[in-house]
């Protein structure tokens, strides 16, 4: 590294970095990092992409985007965080004061995007509890995919309250309550610093991993499971979709493969 670069890239000059909270363990940090990158897109969008773009063959552009885009961004963020021991604004500002705007935009983007996830979690929370009611459609073992789809959007999301232009006409009180509960749970997860958050990730990341394997095992025992497996790993990627598919994958990595500098 040249002397010029050494003068440009300096550790953070903040006086309080030595007193910053630390993760309770490496495992807690790994869980938190993975949890910030893995979400709805990986769990819900993953199967639909596999179905739309030729089953397991989509791993070719997926892994290419992972190694070319995902991992470099991941290492950049972790490296900046470890070196500067500060947040987005301070990390980029340590390179050059004019780059602080990148950190501000990063934080601003988070504040814009997170309310979307808040309402998504509210719908999921409502669907979870209402699934135990006697009126839930799951008691019918012959329920179709379209019926399940209609139940979620008509009964949980309550799209029937929208006008002809799909604009909201009223507040859905139940969803407002579940949204408030969602934000309160999120506050409980971060209110006592990263050491507490790290312990929470053992549940918020550990439990979903276990459940995914449980769902996988259950799915493989259902009738016609092998047909699904063959469709997943046995079809070729259709060429006319490659460009759009690659764009979707890379866009997902840019937006979601993030661990935050702290």
What share of residues is helical?
A: 55-70%
What is the general shape?
A: globular
Please report the total strand number as a whole number: 0
Largest β-sheet summary: none
Mean pLDDT: 76
Structural class: mainly alpha
Identify low-pLDDT runs. Answer: 5-17, 256-262
Rg of Cα set:
22 Å
Series of secondary-structure elements, N-terminal to C-terminal: HHHHHHHHHHHH
State which percent range the strand residues make up: under 5%
Distance between the termini: 25 Å
Q: How many structural units, i.e. domains?
A: 1
Number of helical segments with 4 or more residues: 12
Explain what you see.
The protein is mainly alpha-helical. The protein has one domain. It contains 12 helices and no strands. It has helices spanning 3-8, 26-37, 40-52, 59-84, 88-95, 100-130, 145-156, 173-190, 193-204, 206-220, 225-233, 242-256. Helix 2 packs across helix 9 (193-204) and helix 4 (59-84) runs parallel beside helix 12. The longest helix is centred in the middle third of the chain and has 31 residues, at 100-130. It is globular. Residues 5-17 and 256-262 have low confidence and may be disordered.
């Amino acid at each position: 590294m040249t002397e010029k670069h050494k003068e440009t890239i300096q550790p953070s000059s903040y006086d309080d970095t030595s007193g910053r909270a630390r993760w309770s363990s490496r495992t807690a940090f790994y869980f938190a990092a993975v949890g910030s990158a893995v979400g709805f897109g990986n769990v819900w969008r993953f199967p639909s992409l596999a179905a739309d773009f030729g089953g397991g063959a989509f791993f070719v552009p997926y892994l290419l985007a992972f190694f070319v885009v995902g991992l470099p961004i991941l290492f950049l963020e972790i490296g900046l965080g470890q070196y500067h021991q500060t947040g987005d604004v301070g990390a980029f500002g340590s390179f050059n004061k004019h780059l602080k705007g990148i950190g501000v935009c990063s934080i601003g983007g988070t504040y814009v995007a997170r309310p979307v996830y808040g309402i998504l979690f509210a719908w999921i929370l409502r669907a979870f509890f209402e699934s135990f009611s006697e009126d839930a459609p799951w008691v019918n073992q012959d329920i179709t995919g379209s019926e399940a789809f209609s139940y979620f959007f008509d009964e949980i999301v309550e799209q029937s309250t929208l006008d002809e232009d799909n604009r909201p006409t009223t507040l859905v009180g139940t969803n407002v309550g579940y949204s408030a509960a969602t934000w309160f749970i999120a506050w409980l997860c971060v209110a006592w610093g990263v050491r507490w958050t790290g312990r929470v990730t053992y549940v918020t990341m550990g439990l979903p991993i276990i459940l995914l394997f449980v769902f996988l095992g259950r799915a493989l025992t259902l009738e016609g499971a092998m047909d699904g497996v063959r469709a997943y790993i046995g079809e070729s990627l259709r060429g006319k979709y490659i460009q759009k598919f690659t764009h979707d994958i890379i866009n997902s990595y840019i937006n979601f493969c993030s661990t935050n500098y702290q």
